[in-house]
Design a protein that fits this description.
51 residues, 1 helix, flat
Length: 51
């Protein structure tokens, strides 16, 4: 994927298969999720906590 494709709105997800087999047996039944964020922006941290 080139910078021009990304700047033009193209996006994608990379899925790595086979990692579940490297988990301890007790965790191999976990549910997998894929999350893709696009144009994600983070606001500045507030100087005081929200009550």
């Amino acid at each position: 994927m080139s910078a021009a494709q990304v700047a033009g709105g193209e996006s994608g997800i990379i899925v790595v298969e086979g990692l579940r087999n490297q988990l301890p047996p007790s965790l191999r039944g976990i549910i997998e999720h894929a999350v893709a964020l696009k144009d994600f922006q983070v606001q500045a941290i507030r100087s005081r906590p929200i009550p």
